[in-house]
Amino acid sequence: MGKPTGFIDYPREDMQKAPAMERVQHFNEFEKPQSEQRVKTQAARCMGCGIPFCNWGCPVSNLIPEFNDFVYKGQWKNAYGTLMSTNNFPEFTGRVCPAPCEPACTASLVEKPISIKQIELSIIEKAFAEGWVKPNLVPYRTGIKVAVIGSGPAGLAAAQQLNLVGHSVTVFEKNDRLGGLLRYGIPDFKLEKWVIDRRVALMEEEGVTFKTNAHVGENISIDDLKAEFDYICLCCGSEKPRGLGNIPDADKKGIYFAMEFLTQQNKENHGDQLHPEVKIDAKDKHVVVLGGGDTGSDCIGTSIRQGAKSVTQIQIHKALPEERYESNPWPMWPKTFATSSSQAEGCERIFSVVNTAVKGGDKIEAFELQPIKWPDGEIKSGQRNYEIAGEKYDIPCDILLISLGFEHAIHEGLVDYLGLEKDKRGNIKVENFRTSDPQIWAAGDMIEGANLIVTAINSGRQMASTLKKYIKSQSDK
């Protein structure tokens, strides 16, 4: 602990944000860390707790007090080494992680927590700027060949970890560019894609092989893959979206899943030309985003940047309270009302409504809503004991973006062909990351359901560690 009174002496300072009216004019990142000296001051606020609950809140168990102390003392290279010991890609998490470590910070009990996410991003970007980030070259190869299917955060983490112990790793990506959700599901204004390319280039220098436009089960034979590789790691994500259910006329033009919309914009940002007949263009349109969460927020920010006439976000749940419920104590993630940067750019938020009808001709023109009333207190997951509370009404809607989460991984094709067991939610069933086929392993959203990028990184790391031990146990027989 570098400065015992730091949390008293210095207020929290967040990353710098460009003003909303300025940042909505482009798709570039608009959030930057403070100056190096200011970040050192923020690190001084860390109390070096005897039991650091920030570690508990972090899915990759980052050694947060340790790297904070190094930053405060100006020992940035030591801070970098400490950060990389637990997190393969802090340049991703430092940009897009919701930072569950921060509400778990002890300082948040009485004031604002340490700005951990900002410090993390500052460490890794200084390391790149100083030339400290170099490929970890492997001095030998084990002869074991591993195929990783999917180049999202879980797949990249697994590939890097397995490569570092000497296994020969090939990553297969069905799309024409690498990154999975990072590439196509996260808007550029949160994560510019050169950040992914920079890391992939390092991994290629380390010896990882990448193959794009390689859709296993379609243009890549599953049987050939099983014959060529000793082990196959599935890191394909959770891509089956939840739809509108039994609402009539849900197939009208103008209704899209969130990922269709976000993927198109990311491709266009990269220079891809989209045919006008398939392009989802929010310019001068009334856009309705159905569902909350980060993906819904990303749809809001993207719609505003495209020039939408209006953006409305609707949610079935009531607005969360300003303070925690008693059943949601520190250091748990706070279920409290929050406004994302995209929501702050200009959208109407409607809570406590259910959608009952899609209206229009061939194309959606309005969305019918039914107000509801929830019981007092916290709403539990899956709870539906609300009451009807008023007359139905319509809101104008030219584009409806469905952001209701994901059910599970895509079963058709690869998963069904392999005959893998699934759990009751439709995720791939595993025991210590091994599927019902001992040659096939799985990690990330495929086994856990849709979750955070940092959680997927951790899952890929843990699968690689478990597989490494399994391979050693087999060779010892």
TrEMBL record:
> What GO biological process terms are annotated to this protein in UniProt?
glutamate biosynthetic process
**Molecular-function GO terms, alphabetical:** glutamate synthase (NADPH) activity; iron-sulfur cluster binding; oxidoreductase activity, acting on the CH-NH2 group of donors, NAD or NADP as acceptor
Q: What PROSITE patterns does the database record attribute to this sequence?
A: 4FE4S_FER_2
Q: Does the keyword Oxidoreductase apply?
A: yes
Q: Does the keyword Amino-acid biosynthesis apply?
A: yes
Q: What is its EC number?
A: 1.4.1.13
Q: Which Gene3D superfamilies match?
A: Alpha-helical ferredoxin, FAD/NAD(P)-binding domain
Keywords noted in UniProt: Amino-acid biosynthesis, Glutamate biosynthesis, Oxidoreductase
Domain 4Fe-4S ferredoxin-type: residue ranges = 37-70
Pathway as given in its UniProt record: Amino-acid biosynthesis
Q: Name one Pfam family in it.
A: Fer4_20
Its recorded name reads: Glutamate synthase
